[in-house]
Amino acid sequence: MEPPIARMRKKTTAEMLWPYFLKLLSERPMCGYGLMKEVERRFGWRPPVVSSYLVLRSLRRGGYVAAERSSGGREKTLYRITPKGRRLLREGQRYIRKLCMVLSG
After folding, report:
1. CATH number of the domain that residue 50 is part of
2. Quick check: pTM over 0.70?
3. H/E run at residue 92
4. What is the per-residue pLDDT across 61-72, written as a single tens digit (0 to 9) for each?
5. Which of 104, 80, 89 minimizes the C-alpha distance to 29?
6. How many distinct structural domains can be found in the chain?
């Protein structure tokens, strides 16, 4: 049986990629591979490749990110956060802060 803390880590990282991606995209546009590398560098864990692209597709369909093909060199898809995505990120941040307050108080 998986220890509860290990399951919690999995649920708040690999199974919940969108806040990490929106946070990074709020700083600058990035390609999918760059997002995964930056999550690993900044947050200390490696997101699953297939899940990452599924999350990006879902965020795009929901209007939280926009995508455009880069020109020159190797073609890449660059993702940018939209105003709707910024609102979702703020809402997610508020929820997590509130959860932390409830659990610490």
Report:
1. 1.10.10.10
2. yes
3. helix 83-104
4. 999 999 998 777
5. 80
6. 1
